[in-house]
Amino acid sequence: MSQAVATPNAGADTTPPVTQRREGAVLVVTISNPPVNALGVAVRRGLQAAIAEAEADAAVALVLIHGAGRAFIAGADIREFGQPPQAPALPDVCRAIEQCSKPVVAAIHGPALGGGLEIALSAHYRLALPGSKLGLPEVQLGLLPGSGGTQRAPRLAGVKAAVELMLSGRHIGAEEAAKLGLVDRVGAGTDPLSAGLAYAAELLAQSAPVRRSCDAPGLADRAAAQAELDALRADTAKKSKGLFSPMKIIEAVQAALELPFDEGMKRERELFWQCIDSPQRAGLIHAFFAEREVLKVPEAQAAQPRPFATLGVVGGGTMGAGIAVSALDAGLPVTMVERDAESIARGRANVEKVYDGLVAKGRMTPEAKAAVMARYTGSTSYEALAQVDLVIEAVFEEMGVKKAVFAELDRVCKPGAVLATNTSYLDIDEIAASVSRPQDVVGLHFFSPANIMKLLEIVVPAQVSADVVATAFALAQKLKKVPVRAGVCDGFIGNRILAVYRAAADHMMEDGASPYQIDQALRDFGYPMGPFQVSDLAGGDIGWATRKRRAATRDPKARYVQIADRICERGWFGQKTGRGYYLYPAGARTGEMDPEVLAIVDAERERAGITPRAFSNDEILRRYMAAMVNEGANVVHQGIALRPLDVDVTFVYGYGFPRYRGGPMKYADMVGLPQILADIEAFAKEDPLFWKPSPLLVELVAKGANFASLNQSE
Ligand code: 3H9
């Protein structure tokens, strides 16, 4: 993102980000680089200088490092990656700490992640307070721990635990870190300075010696360590799903097993640079910042959210129940309303089914389920929603039905209640205009299953007030969703773009590629499933209903592929009917190729007068992505998405786009916009109606700019 290296303490404050002062024989080193004490160049320089001072000052007997504010250290400054490196490098700072001739203590509170944990592991003694979050999450950025984490963590915690931490990137608490041998002491309280000073006093009283992690004995049983690593390597090869850095982590730990410490560090550095140079690093770091930038929308910056403590859900079908579960999981009380006793019983059963599944798998106790369900109320009367702060309507996707529900909500809900509609396509301005309080109406487009899928499109109709939008963003965060602001249009951001690239896939199918080849090409790209598998999973009848609804307004000159209709006419709706594009014998979830589907495709080609031609997987990908990016550009151009990064986050969290590619707009930037535009212009020769270059794409190419230039933070 930002091409500028973050300046610590930018602005009027000129306090250096690392300060030291003597407290008796202890040199207290304080890192203060808000918001999370990332290890930018000034922090690295400060730490190096502090260690030099400790060595030089005979009155210093021990060094205590701690973080000011809410973190110990959240890691390397991610904004520096991809920039020319500036000395000192973090591994050198870590080595200086470890080589210090006086004991160094790290007092950890809050996040101690990545390079932050590596600093702590280079210290000689570690204390962590409750609430600490320790981890080596570099894998999530396409990296490996590059400041000795791959060499020191296995020596302290053993291969298995260390590699598991590095491959999962998960954060662990102080207690678990102590069990693993990564910290020596779990302290009490919330102040790392006072806890650290008390620990330092103890160590000084015991004349505790310097004790270096590079000499720790975790790899002493070489054969056992190698056997553990071999098993992890085999597992990682199977599970790393196209990711680059997991195998590099294994290689780095192999070096820890085989090489003396300093040579292992060199090997780790080489592997780290391979990760830095990989496009996956660029994609994942883009995703990291984009996921945070999506929260920065004008309404949420201009207004405070309305308080919300209670939630109503209208509709107990799959969507309504999923939304209710999501809210119950977040600790909110939920009142669900359905039209009659039978429907509300079904609604309740749909909610309970989710928790019963967890209980059956041993992931929830029956008591915990009962406690959650105690917050659920079912009712057949709208009056039950009179006092709730926020209502989400999740009834049948039809304007008349939705308006009838909103009329009821308008009648019963208290003034100031937020009235949200969970629609995928419908015009929310029209819904808002039908009530007496359009300023309270907002769209919340959940994705199915709503308790699992992270994406939440927050659709902003013309008359909504800013605090309602801010409330929607606050709700999304409470529900642990990733919210994206969208404007009103048919399909909002995600489904609108989907309709276009899905049509491109249908065109390719009719022109000669099989659905199986198209799916394979997209799985090779990194999607967990191809578009035809997704259609079988979602149910072909859903798309069929939409196509029928749109039939009347479809441009008769636009190309329309009828293969999906032929399949649906046979009642083949995908997994739930045992066949769709694929065959699912005996309820199987993985489909098999279906020769009858291929025969239908052939017949449709013939009917349309098309002589099939061969497609390479590369061409399939180019067409699919060109269609997606072009419509993404239209969506940004028309203000439906605020920035290209909002399109990226939508696709990563709602449509299975591989996160390590950053999102479609980031991918387009990496391919180069002139290339994408040239593809579209070439395809337009066959079908100028479908392939119309987006004005935004044309403009950016003419200016030599990219999508990143429209993301304020880049
Ligand atoms: C590494 O360490 C490599 C080394 O092994 C080797 C090097 C040679 N840098 O998430 P939040 C910003 S790789 C720069 O909203 P929270 C973030 O963008 C690094 N900026 O807060 C946001 O900015 P803004 C390994 C960072 O409380 C603000 O801080 N470390 C960094 O929900 C607040 O963040 C990681 O991967 C950073 N490292 O969560 C940890 N971290 O306000 C990444 C955060 O402008 N960070 N920012 O939007 C996190 O997981 C979470 O931010 C954290 C706090 C848990 C720390």
TrEMBL record:
<dbReference type="InterPro" id="IPR001753">
    <property type="entry name" value="Enoyl-CoA_hydra/iso"/>
</dbReference>
<dbReference type="InterPro" id="IPR018376">
    <property type="entry name" value="Enoyl-CoA_hyd/isom_CS"/>
</dbReference>
<dbReference type="InterPro" id="IPR006108">
    <property type="entry name" value="3HC_DH_C"/>
</dbReference>
<dbReference type="InterPro" id="IPR029045">
    <property type="entry name" value="ClpP/crotonase-like_dom_sf"/>
</dbReference>
<keyword id="KW-0456">Lyase</keyword>
<keyword id="KW-0560">Oxidoreductase</keyword>
<comment type="subunit">
    <text>Monomer.</text>
</comment>
<keyword id="KW-0576">Peroxisome</keyword>
<keyword id="KW-0413">Isomerase</keyword>
<dbReference type="Pfam" id="PF00378">
    <property type="entry name" value="ECH_1"/>
</dbReference>
<dbReference type="Pfam" id="PF02737">
    <property type="entry name" value="3HCDH_N"/>
</dbReference>
<dbReference type="InterPro" id="IPR036291">
    <property type="entry name" value="NAD(P)-bd_dom_sf"/>
</dbReference>
<keyword id="KW-0276">Fatty acid metabolism</keyword>
<dbReference type="Pfam" id="PF00725">
    <property type="entry name" value="3HCDH"/>
</dbReference>
<comment type="pathway">
    <text>Lipid metabolism; fatty acid beta-oxidation.</text>
</comment>
<protein>
    <submittedName>
        <fullName>3-hydroxyacyl-CoA dehydrogenase NAD-binding domain-containing protein</fullName>
    </submittedName>
</protein>
<dbReference type="InterPro" id="IPR006176">
    <property type="entry name" value="3-OHacyl-CoA_DH_NAD-bd"/>
</dbReference>
<keyword id="KW-0443">Lipid metabolism</keyword>
<dbReference type="InterPro" id="IPR008927">
    <property type="entry name" value="6-PGluconate_DH-like_C_sf"/>
</dbReference>
<keyword id="KW-0520">NAD</keyword>
<comment type="similarity">
    <text>In the N-terminal section; belongs to the enoyl-CoA hydratase/isomerase family.</text>
</comment>
<keyword id="KW-0442">Lipid degradation</keyword>
<comment type="similarity">
    <text>Belongs to the enoyl-CoA hydratase/isomerase family.</text>
</comment>
<feature type="domain" description="3-hydroxyacyl-CoA dehydrogenase NAD binding">
    <location>
        <begin position="311"/>
        <end position="486"/>
    </location>
</feature>
<feature type="domain" description="3-hydroxyacyl-CoA dehydrogenase C-terminal">
    <location>
        <begin position="491"/>
        <end position="584"/>
    </location>
</feature>
<feature type="domain" description="3-hydroxyacyl-CoA dehydrogenase C-terminal">
    <location>
        <begin position="621"/>
        <end position="704"/>
    </location>
</feature>
<keyword id="KW-0511">Multifunctional enzyme</keyword>
